[in-house]
What does this fold into?
Amino acid sequence: MIDFVHVVGMVFIGGGVAFDLFGCLGLVRLPDVYNRLQAATKCVTLGTCSVLLGTCLIVGPSGGGWRALLCILFVVLTAPVSAHAIARGAHRAGIRLWEGSVSDAYSEDRDALNAKQQARNDNAPATPQTETRT
Amino acid sequence: MRTLSWVLGAVILVAVVCWLAVYPPPLDLGPEAHYAAFVTSAFYILLLAGVLCLFRVLRGPTSADRLVALDIFGVLIVGCCALFAMGTGQSWYIDIGITWALMSFIGALALAKYLEGRPLDD
It folds into this structure.
């Protein structure tokens, strides 16, 4: 006997598995580290959260269901942070973007910040001299 | 060395596929046996996604590609643990999933910091 909650849970699990498969297909097909990270992380995080939500609906409000909700919380908290850390590390390690990319905002920000710090370091020896004169 | 790694990966993949063909996963043992075929097919689709991740780990031109693929593979294993927990009716598989999510998070952070070129205690 299949009731309504089981059908909703199976729909969630089927959609989540499809998201996982297409995310991993993007991991194989896309041309760049950053494109692959962008496709795979978002798709696979949503797909796994959907699978866990379907598991929670089918198992019911017992120990396994609540632990599935806790696992959803952990996956949602940890996956974007690790993806951001990997992207930052790859950019700082000097891995180049794909040649068809049109924008690199992080390197522009870093260049602007380095120019500002350079200007501050150039102005820095002037101020203690005026203080010592007074 | 590269040829050796390819041969080793191919041997491991063939061994896993043969093991799954001879001993299928025991997903139809629980009292809710009417969706056992659905859970089994979902598990095989997740296994195909994991094979795609392993292809990226083997083929990746830079080390960041391999790191991304390993991170994604950890999240896929969490989904596999949820499917096992639902199919067998034993809820301790979800504990394995929670632990795997936290451990792969810590490992990915440490490897990203190592990739960035800073020491690990910075």
Remarks:
- DSSP finds five helices and no strands in chain A.
- Residues 9 and 75 of chain A are 19 Å apart (CA to CA).
